[in-house]
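Weekly structure sync, notes
Attendees: PL (lead), two postdocs, one rotation student
Agenda item 3: pending single-chain targets
PL asked that the sequence for the first pending target be pasted directly into the notes so everyone works from the same version. It is reproduced below exactly as submitted, 164 residues in total.
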Amino acid sequence: MADTSFSRRRFLAASGLVVGAGMMMPRTVFGANERIRVALIGTGDRCGSHIQELGKLRDECNVEVVAVCDVWKPNRESAAARVEKLFNKKPFQTSRFGEVLAQKDVDAVLIATPDFAHTPIMIEALKAGKDVYVEKPMSITVEEANEALDLARKNERVVQAGTQ
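Predicted structure, written out during the meeting:
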């Protein structure tokens, strides 16, 4: 018998990703070859569940993970292997988030790094014209939060802050 229990934590994680992926969809109806191409920045434990959820959304939301970034090689390689298995394509791998943001085929980034790195990476992603899903806390200071808000508005980008 299948386990039908659905914890609050699991619901929030799944619904946050669904909402985030839905918000990052192109502003028009997409064709068969248009995809939301996502890069993962920070591929530790928290990102592991995001990979699974993105895999579930692959066909329904036309999502593809195209890059993984982590400073710790074992995390990066493990995430890349999981992504390759779920999406049938090897993602670009790097330890430098700037290299991810420079990729023309990246539409959005999912930031699951340690808390202190969330806002600086989000700000750079917004400057690079990427949509952002960022784990909480979105920011540690009001000044950085305002800078991110101003950039999101100026560049017409979507920012979704996670709940987990």
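Discussion points:
- The first helix runs from residue 8 to 23.
- The chain has six helices and six strands.
Action: rotation student to compare against the earlier draft before next sync.
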